[in-house]
Amino acid sequence: MPNLITKRWHGYHMVLAMCFSLVLIALLSTYNWAFALIGLFFYLLLGYVLYRAEKQFRHEFNEYVQTLTQRVKGANQAAFDEMPVGILLYDRKGQVVWHNPFIKGMADKDSLVGSAVTDVFPDLAGNGSDTEKLLLNNRTFEVIHDHEERLYFFREITRLEELRKRYEREQNIVGFLHMDNFEEAGAGLDDQERTLLVTDVQSVITRWAQKQDITLKKFDAEKYFMVFRRETLERLIRNRFDILDVVREMTHHNKIPITLSIGVATFRSSVVEQTHAAEAALDIALARGGDQAAVQQKDRVVFFGGKTNAVEKRTRVRARVISYALTNLIRDSERVLIMGHDQPDMDAVGAAIGVLRSVRMADREGYIILKDSNPSIDALMTAISEHHSLEGAFIPPEKALSLTGKNTLLILVDTHKPSLTIEPRLVERSERVVVIDHHRRGEEFVKDPVLVYLEPYASSTSELVTELLQYQDERLTIEPLETTALLAGIVVDTKSFAFRSGSRTFEAASFLRRHGADLSMVQTLLKEDLFRFVKRAEIVKNTEVVYDKIAIAIGEKDERYDQLIIAQAADTLLNMKGISASFVIGWRDDGKVAISARSLGEPNVQLIMESLGGGGHLTNAAVQFEGLTPLEARQRLQEVLREYCEEEGGGVK
User: Fold this and answer.
1) Predicted confidence (pLDDT) per residue in 220-241, tens digit
2) How far does CA 652 lie from the centroid of its chain?
3) What is the DSSP track for 425-446?
4) What's the pTM value of the predicted model, to 2 decimals?
5) Which residues form the GGDEF domain (predicted)?
């Protein structure tokens, strides 16, 4: 019996009382021995009763403890046998040494002892996590693994998983649908034709919404607000938002077809934030040229569609407003830094020189950030070194970082992705950033820019900057080298006005020509030496044609190329008869593997490059890899091409 029972302190009071009584009896015997004998008799009788009571207590207590022990053991065994949790022990060899009856019900076997855990539950093999989910016979279990004790716990969560999946399926998603080119498509049509066109398009959209269980509310002439469930979104993603194709094909006979842009946000923090995220997704889709859906999924955006070139619809009003706002930002700054993308081309440098002219017209200090020259701009940089006003305008990134302050304005040209700039740290440190770019907006973007002039309809950033210059001071003075650099940027990006050249492109070129742009100097700046021509020819000779119309070329294994040669090789292949798209892969000088992609419109090389982590335009795109070889990059490209061709109906159109 435990000491706390036999030697409990509060049990000694009876012993003390008995001793005290015995002392009293002894004292009584000195006065009257008869009364003392009577007292002694009752003392012994009381002692006997107490002894029997104590003995009975200990006996009953032992029986109680034994009974309780048996009940606890029985409860433990019943718990192991009946509890809705599986327990499995295994040895060092991974074989089952013991399990409770719950495991038998899971595996539908009487005994698993001696079997390997990997044979009984193959999905647990090689999983080093402490907690995981196991799907077995249409039942879902949560598995907790105690590696030290070589012990598995299994808890069935089938019902919980069903509720979770149902909750996810029934989550409300909000989005916006925008009819692109709505006003332009009706131009030139009479009232009846315009009404019929709009009615047909709206009917198709309404029927599609009803079929997909989407609540649609029109709140503007060309905008709809959408509410639907996540299961509907998953279905739309599987169908790759086929409503885009339906409306495009329906109106393709129009001079300007109507296309759709859709913005959707899936994450749930609050309804207000989700709505704002959906609006931002729609803005991204529109900034990329429309005719596509942008789905915001937490920290990334997934795009669908984007199969057509954007219709040129920039207005001079917007150019004038942007020019005015940019001038005010420059005047409110102490210093202006201008930066393009890494390995800048003629368009980036030409646009930067144009922006520098705006800075100097506002009487502010301005610099262009350039890390190193490259073959695509060597001729221009040589000409600049001989030009007194531009000679000191170019500074290295290290100096630009030291010049960055509270009153410094950073202007990015020909890129909107901080990771692709010459010095990404400069973007992080700058409180005010302006973006001027003509590329379709990607998932990565400058955080909180003060001004954005992103027009995917433009042929080049030099064209956008030229338009901004037209709305500067009427007494515009711009030097011939500056206009020549801007014109060279336009010529490079349009392939001598053969691609992506709209009416605004020729107007910008005409403006530059009137202000002294030298056409012969443009040709001189764009001349190529014989060595580079031979290197490009070496790439072209390693060409393989797939899907009958797609050319894939890969550079020499141990050869390094600058980005310009890779891009020029892709342009050369696209000029070959029967080729609708070209992809050129090669090592760059910086150790990265680059892919330059060109297309005549189909396939959409922008979507293909975005699948690989790059971006660009429908007809002109690229991507760079770190840690891959050209052969591995080619394998990834072929996988994406195969998926793209399967989605397009088995082949490239």
Assistant:
1) 888 999 999 989 999 998 888 9
2) 28
3) HHHHH-SEEEEEE-SPP-S---
4) 0.61
5) 170-298
